[in-house]
Amino acid sequence: MKEYIKANGSIFECSKVLTGAGTVSFYMESQSVAGMEQFFRAVSSLSVAGAPDAVPYGAFENLAFQSASVYADGSTSVSMRIKSETEMRLEALEESQEIQDGAITEIGKAIGGEA
User: Fold this and answer.
1) Residue 26 forms beta bridges with which residues?
2) How many CB atoms are closer than 10 A to CB 52?
3) How many angstroms from the chain centroid is the CA of residue 68?
4) Taking the model in full, what pTM does it have?
């Protein structure tokens, strides 16, 4: 049975979708491993359905790319992992710090421009 991964507006036909403790892996035909790596590095959520336009029966969020592999028969697999709470907190902290750094820079420019 074919399954379909939908991520970032694209749909991929998969020969197999496997889930494990904190991971989701899927296997595709006729895909380049480099293309799959490039695409899925930017993916943070995806859904799984039994047909391209069917209602998803699986949804995964807070994902991080783990690996992409090509096999002797030409099939490709992609593995994603679910980020830990610590990773998500660290990302939020880093994002907040970047915003604060930008604000401090702008304040410094405003103060420096008034002198």
Assistant:
1) 17, 78
2) 11
3) 13
4) 0.76
Going by C-alpha positions, the residue among 1, 46, 6, 4 that lies closest to residue 23 is 46
Q: What contacts 74, CB < 8 A, 6 or more positions away?
A: 29, 30
* Rounded distance between C-alpha atoms, residue 93 and residue 91, angstroms: 5
CB atoms closer than 10 angstroms to residue 68: 21
| CA dist 30 → 15, 27, 53, 107 (Å) | 11, 10, 21, 53
pLDDT tens digits, residue range 69-95? Answer: 999 999 999 999 999 888 888 877 888
Give 29's strand partners: none
pLDDT score of 50: 94
